[in-house]
């Protein structure tokens, strides 16, 4: 009888452990369905689904911008300061360039270092023009090159849950960083 109990208990543990290790299916509206390749400021290449499991705060910028992008970066830093320190390892602050020609991984790394954004939760991404446009479309973000060194673009900060579902968007510069950070903190706590 004891042997039967141990066999049943072992079987239960095996199947419950196996069930917990399988990733659940992605929601249909997840950004992790995008299959394009991206490169980060550390010259690592991967798909967006490599960020799965973290709460994402995403903004699209270009590093040579002198107008609104510095304000968007400042907003991202304000958000970072209001995220609970214990939650930063479960969060990625993602800046996606709309100027991949200029914003090489080396340039993005220097921008991150100069701006004090070189902690591991800061992710700077670049891809090709088609992937960048596809991602902008997913965010309902518009941009257009208006000169060789300048772009016109929307100012949107988006928050995604760990499964890649959009849960909040704030538009404009000088956004409510407290609201965004509060959403991030709640999302991390609940996941």
What does the model show?
It is a single chain. The protein has 191 residues and is α+β, with helices and mostly antiparallel strands. The protein has a single domain (31-190), classed as 3-Layer(aba) Sandwich (Glutaredoxin), CATH 3.40.30.10. It contains five helices and nine strands; from the N terminus they run αβββαβαβαββββα. It has helices at residues 2-21, 69-82, 105-114, 129-138, 177-190; strands spanning 37-40, 45-47, 55-61, 91-97, 122-126, 143-147, 150-153, 156-160, 166-171. β3 (55-61), α2 and β4 form a beta-alpha-beta unit. α2 crosses α5. It starts with a helix and ends with a helix.
Tell me the CATH superfamily.
Answer: Glutaredoxin
Task: Write down the oligomeric state.
Answer: single chain
User: How many separate domains make up the residues?
Assistant: 1
Query: Quick check: average pLDDT?
Result: 90
Q: Figure out the total of helices.
A: 5
As residue ranges, the low-confidence spans are 4-10, 12-21
Tell me roughly what share of residues is in helical segments: 25-40%
Name of the top-level CATH class: Alpha Beta
The global form is: globular
Main sheet characteristics: 7 strands, mixed
Structural class: alpha+beta
- The CATH topology turns out to be Glutaredoxin
The string of secondary-structure elements, in order, is HEEEHEHEHEEEEH
Q: What tags apply to this protein structure?
A:
single chain, 191 residues, alpha+beta, Glutaredoxin, seven-stranded mixed beta sheet, two-stranded antiparallel ribbon, 5 helices, 24% strand
């Amino acid at each position: 009888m004891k042997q039967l109990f141990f066999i049943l208990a072992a079987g239960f543990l095996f199947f419950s452990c196996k069930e917990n290790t399988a990733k659940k299916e992605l929601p249909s509206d997840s950004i992790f369905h995008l299959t394009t390749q991206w490169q980060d400021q550390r010259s690592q290449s991967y798909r967006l689904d490599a960020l799965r499991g973290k709460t994402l705060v995403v903004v699209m910028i270009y590093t040579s911008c002198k107008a609104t992008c510095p304000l968007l970066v400042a907003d991202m830093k304000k958000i970072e300061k209001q995220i609970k320190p214990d939650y930063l390892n479960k969060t990625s602050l993602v800046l996606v360039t709309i100027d991949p020609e200029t914003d090489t991984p080396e340039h993005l790394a220097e921008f991150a270092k100069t701006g004090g954004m070189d902690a591991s939760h800061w992710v700077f991404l670049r891809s090709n023009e088609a992937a960048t446009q596809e991602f902008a479309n997913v965010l309902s973000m518009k941009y257009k090159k208006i000169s060789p060194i300048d772009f016109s673009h929307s100012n949107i900060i988006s928050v995604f849950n760990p499964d890649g579902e959009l849960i909040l968007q704030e538009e404009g510069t000088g956004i409510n960083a407290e609201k965004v950070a509060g959403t991030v903190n709640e999302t991390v706590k609940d996941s």
